[in-house]
Structure formats: structure tokens, C-alpha cells
Amino acid sequence: MSEGWAEVWRMGLRSRGFVIGGVVTLIFILIAVSALIWTPYPVAEIVVSRRFQGISAAHWLGTDQFGRDLVSLLMAGAVNSVAVAIVAVGLGMGIGVPLGALAAARQGWLDEIVMRANDFAFAFPALLSAVMITALAGPGAVNSIIAIGIFNIPVFARLTRGAALVVWKREFILAARVSGKGPLRISVEHVLPNIASVLIVQATIQFALAILAEAGLSYLGLGTQPPQPSWGKMLNEAQTLMFLAPQLAIFPGMAIALTVLGLNLFGDGLRDVLDPRLRRER
Amino acid sequence: MKRIFLFLAASLAGLIPLQLQAAGDHLNMGMVLEPPHLDPTAGAAAAIDEVVYANVFEGLTRIDRNGEVKPGLASSWEVSDDGKIYRFTLREGVTFHDGTSMDSSDVIFSIQRAIAEDSVNAQKALFEPIESVAAEGAGTVIVTLKRPTGHFLFNLGWGDAIVVDEESAAGNKVNPTGTGPFAFKRWVKGDRVELQRNDAYWGEPAQLATATFRFIPDPAAAVSAMMAGDVDAFANFPAPESMVQFEADPRFTVFIGSTEGETILSTNNGRPPFDDIRVRQAIAHAIDRKAIIDGAMFGYGTPIGSHFAPHHPAYVDLTNRYPLDLEKAKALLAEAGHAGGFKATLKLPPPSYARRGGEIIASQLQEIGIELEIIPVEWAQWLEQAFRGKDFDLTIVSHTEPMDIGIYARDSYYFDYHSGAFNGLMDKLAAEVDEKARYAVMADAQKRLAEDAVNGFLFQLAKHGVWNAKVKGLWENSPVQANDLTAVSWEK
User: Fold this and answer.
1) Fewer beta carbons below 10 Å: N end or C end of chain B?
2) What confidence tens digit (pLDDT) does each residue in A8-39 have?
């Protein structure tokens, strides 16, 4: 196994996207984690008298319309993005992967039901269904997490089923069946480990999409609510101030763009590294 | 969801009518809130009056742009020496938009409908002094009061006192039928209300042939609509930060006027812990009005210390009754048994003064340990939950009715404030006709409210008027809730 990882590492270093994406993602996660224990200023601290300050030593990126420190807001926004994305993708995987694995293991009518339900969910564009869910259930961080999580379910269910079906036809599965293992045990012990790399790659990409979706929902006022900081909400508030203080829109916008770009590069690089088929094609 | 549709609808709809309408006789007026319905005699929402007052509906008297009482459907009146009998002479040849004529029977119907037991009028108190109404032929109405009432003629000028037609009154919520210079054309829910000139108007006809009220709750969308020319005027622009930008642009006229809007942190006086005056006083000590005005309104707004408009002659400056003092506030909280603070909710309706002011207040109250959970609500939700249902701890809203200090004497009002002393002052005010004495009572009433710290008194809302520089005749100030388009015209 250690040899395998060493090879992955070597492959990874050769992929430029993987390195750049990995570094950006790492920085993003580090910022989010450090914001949990430290931000330059308390995030919710409103000091109106110091609003609209430019870049300075005291406020590295200046302050917003309420005199809040922009760096602190962006850091706390990163926490919010990571939290929402982890929970939402976790929700999607937690439900989608077992569903897909079950469909692949059992096949027949169960497969049909699960996959048709999936097709139904897929028919709605992801963000639109999230907007729909938050409009029905009311705006808020929790509802937006659930909404983003729900549109992640079919993605993982379909992917898991497809990948698992391929694995189910392999000889070692036949061997496991001959030795008397049930479908559930085979799924957990043999199928899932073999499709894990595909799932990890997809999770990275869904993670980026979830961050984007959360920012979108918050921008529309349906996601994270004040005073909880969120990049999307910062963009929304900065909108009418574009002529007065453009940096208030530029910095959160850059944060979103960089993070999503980093995660996508990382995901693509990871796919190149982990997916044996692609590797052989090279 | 709704917001996106609104935005799409607004941007699509903006293109079509502008191209069809000949320039010069159509006005697109922007508003933040959409009225729940269009009958001013059946709802408290200012947005109703802001569409129909003086445009579609008229009363016996009307309030003009300077807040003065002018003849409306009554061309003149005489008041008896004891101040109890009012004799109104009605204008001749006035017809409702459906063609029926307006006479004394309609006036009597309107007043009796408002004072009736089952009346749904939001300002029943205005009509409370009326003992009886009678007709003297078709052209004269005599109103007898229980006692002399100083501001009776002003009260009759409110949107809640407009004259309606018995046949069409029930349908006024969706199809308002009045006597005004504009007739209702149609209402596209969630988007706009269209009016057209009433060619059978009794007075000077309006110069605009058509007018559209567009509802744009989102400040950013309002800026774009204004810049793109989709909207010609905003009586009260939702994004005060854009005033500088509009001021610098020769295409627009900017006028910062006054409104009757006391913006307050409404407090549920009936619900613990806010039923304890020390808690309310602590909140008053913790509120920094200047920060709220600067942060939420970009400096536009006058601090108030009670529920009274600073431009009124009887105004008393009580802003220093509870000066900003966090130590005192904490001590008061501790005294009330909340040494570590407590948790409460803050419901915020859509206007930016509420949404932005709310964030600032939440951060200010946090300083003394009060953790506020911010709950943004839509306008209809706010009216339903907070205003009618009294289901709130704290909320922020601007009370834009003129001279509305009397709401604190209402038994079932949403503040849940009950004070015998204050009710006594209001009774005294109602009976007093001498102006000086009235002002003295008003001053006492203001002090009473400040003393009891009924609500967090924040600031008097400024009117951020922005309109196309070629549009003339819009109101600079808002002495009543109205967007009077009677005198509006385009510069040729």
C-alpha cells in the first residue's frame, strides 16, 4: 500500500493543476480553521465610526459599511463556506452512496425505483431546486445546507451505482459470493473500497459546487442570515456600494472565485492521479 | 424565489411600457413595499395610501404637500362656536370612477362605515369623537361631535377617512373606485399597480395620462432600475448610500425631505422580560442612535427620544433621557434579574432601515449581554405575525402616520403598552382645542413615553427622494403617507 501512495504522490507532483489546486485548497482550509480560534477583530463587532476605511496596517483589507474588519469577515465567511459545504456534501454522500450501492447490489425493481427517483431529482437544475427548497422552508443557513445536500444525493447515488455495477462483475466479487458473503457485506468490504477514489474526486468537485451554491443562495438572501457572515451575503450588501467602495465587492468575489477555482483544479488533478483508467490512457 | 421573479419581471416589464408610452405623460414611480390590498379604509399599511391617496381616493378635506388642511370633496365648511358642529358644503358634479355621482349619502355612508362596530378601519380613533352625521339635501353634510376636537379637520384628511361609494366599497381592496384624478387600471401582483387619468375629474385634471407604481424591494435592484430609467422617481429610495451617486448625476434630482416616520425598535411590552421597565431602560441606555443613523441611513435621519416628529412645533428633545451608558444598562439588567443578559428575537421587515439598523442594534445590545436572533420577514408576514399577532420580542419599523402618538393609548395595539397616565393625557388632548394647551399636553405625552421607555426610539426617517430631473411637482416631504401625482408633470 505504501508503494501505491508513493506513486500517487509522484503522479500528483507532476500534475500542475493538482499542485496549484491543492495549495489553494490548503490555504483556504487553513484560513477557515484559524478563523475558528482567531480573527484580527471580533467578527460581529460593528463600529460605525470606522466604516469604509481603505487598506491599512490596522485593517489589512479595510472595513465595510458597518465598520467591520473585512479580513475578519472573509475569514469567518470561509468557515461558513467550509461548514456548509462539508455538511451538504456529507449529507449528499451519506444518503446518495448507500442508495447507489444498494441499487447496484440488489438490482431489479429496487434499482429501478431508486434510479427513477434520481432522474426526477436530476431534472431540476441544482441551484433552482435549492432556491425552491429555501423559498418553501424559509431562508436560513440550515435550510440552505439541507437544500444543497439534497441536490447532492442523486449525484452520488448515480455515480456510486455506475461504478459499483462495474465492480460487481469482477472475479473477486464472484469469489466473495462463492465464499458465502451477502450482498451488503460485499458492498461494504469489496465494492466501496474499490470505488472510493471516484467518490473522493466527485466529492471535491461537489464541495466547490456547494460553496458556490451557498454563496448564490446567500446573495439572494435565502441562505446564511445576518449577522452570520457569508461571502454571498457580503457581495449582496456591497452591490449598492459599488461606486462608493468597490473593494467590498471585489474581495469576497475574489475569495469565492479563488476557492472554487482551487477546488476544481484540485479535483481534476486528483482524478488524474487516482483514476487508473485515465492513468493508463496517458 | 419571489425576489428573482420580481427582478426578472421588473426588468422585462420595464422594457415594454416605456417603448409604448409616449414620453411626457407617463410616470413610473418606484416603491419599496407592495400594498397588501388597495383599500385605505381597511388597513394600516402605509403602502396602500402611497398608491391611492389623493390619486384615486379623496376625502372631505385633504392634506397638502406642506401638511396643511385644504378643501377636498368639501369645498368649504363652517364650525359652530362651541366647536362641536361641522357643516360641510360638498362640491357639485363629483362622480366616482364607475360613473355614479358623489353626494351627501356617500359621505354619510363612508363615515358610518368607519365608526361602525364591525368596522375594519385601521384608524378608528380618528372617528371616535363623532356623535352623529346627517345630510341636509344632497350637497351638505353636518357632523356633530361628542366634544370639541382640535385636529378634526386634519383627521378627515387622512387616507383612512376617504369617501367611498356604497355600491363599490366592498370591492375597493382589489378594484379601488374613488373620485380622484386617477382611476385604477390594473394590479399585477408582485410587480406593479397601473393608474390612468380620470377625464371626468371635477377639479383640475392631472397632467399625466398614466402612472405606474412599481414595487422594488431590493435596494440594488432599485439602483439599477433608477439608473436604467425603468423607474422615473422614488419618493423614498431604499439605498441611502446611493444618494451621493444620484446627486452627482445631472439626470436626477435628489431631495432629502422629512417624513412622519418615527423609526422605532418596537418592543413587546407584554412579554417577559420586556414587561420589566428596567429591561427596556437598559436597552434604551445601550442604543447608540448616531451609529444607527450613520451605519444604516448614511447619516440621513434625526435622532428622536420619544414618539414624535422633530419638525412638529410641540416636539420636545428627549434624546438625552437615556444617554448611551453601557455600565448603567448592565446595572439595570442585573437589577431586573438578568445579570448575564438573555436571548430574544428581532424580527426585521424588508425596508433597509430595518434590515441594516437591526444588525447594528443586535451588535449594540450584545455589548450588554442581550443576544438577539435576527429573523428577516417579508412585509405580509410582518403585518400578520408582529403587527396583528403580537408574536415578536423586538422589531424595527417606521410609523409613518402623522401625529400618531395616540397609538400608545390603544388597548390592543401591538406594543401591548397599557398606561392609565398616558391614556389620561390622550383624553385631555382630544378635548383640548386651544393650541398652546394642546402642545403642552403633547409634550407631557412625549415625556411619559420616554419615561416608560416603551420602545427603543431611534430616529425620524428622512425622505430620500430621487427623481428624473425633468419630473416636476413631486412632494419634497411626506406630511402624510402619499405619493400625490396630481401636480406632477414632465418638463417640456
Assistant:
1) C
2) 777 777 778 889 999 999 999 999 999 999 88
pLDDT in tens, B57-99: 999 999 998 888 999 999 999 999 888 999 999 999 999 999 9
Question: B363 touching A, CB under 8 A?
Answer: yes
Domains of chain B, each with CATH number or no CATH: 22-200+469-490 (3.40.190.10), 261-461 (3.10.105.10)
Asked if residue A281 has pLDDT above 90, the reply is: no
Residue B489 CA to residue A154 CA, distance in Å, equals: 58
Residues 6+ apart with CB under 8 A from B489: B207, B208, B471, B472, B473
**Chain A residue numbers touching B219 (CB-CB < 8 A):** 239-240
Cell representation of residue B316 = 420636545
Q: What integer is the mean pLDDT of B331-355?
A: 92
Q: Mean pLDDT, to the nearest integer, of B45-55?
A: 93
Amino acid at A279: R
CA B237 → CA A267, B370, B376, distances in Å? Answer: 46, 32, 20
Label each residue of A164-197 as H, E or C.
HHHHHCCHHHHHHHHCCCCHHHHHHHHHHHHHHH
Torsion of CA A248, A252, A255, A258, to 10 degrees: -90
Contact B314, B438 (CB under 8 A): yes
CA distance B213 to B194: 6
DSSP label of B78: E
Nearest alpha-carbon partner for A211 in A72, A88, A33, A70:
A88
Q: Please check whether residue B248 touches A, CB under 8 A.
A: no
- B89 near B71, Cβ under 8 Å? no
Query: Which residues in chain B have Cβ-Cβ distances shorter than 8 Å to A134?
Result: 1
Residue A254 CA to residue A232 CA, distance in Å, equals 11
* pLDDT tens digits, B13-32: 444 444 444 457 899 999 99
Confidence category of residue B6, pLDDT binned at 50, 70, 90: very low
C-beta atoms of A240 and B2 within 8 A: no
CB distance B305 to B320 below 8 Å: yes
Cα separation of A67 and A78, whole Å?
19
ipTM: 0.73
**Gap between the Cα atoms of B231 and B54, Å rounded:** 21
Amino acid of residue B321 = R
Query: Between A and B, how many residue pairs show a Cβ–Cβ distance under 8 A?
Result: 70
pLDDT value of position B2: 47
- Helix (H, G, I), strand (E, B), or coil: what is residue B79? strand
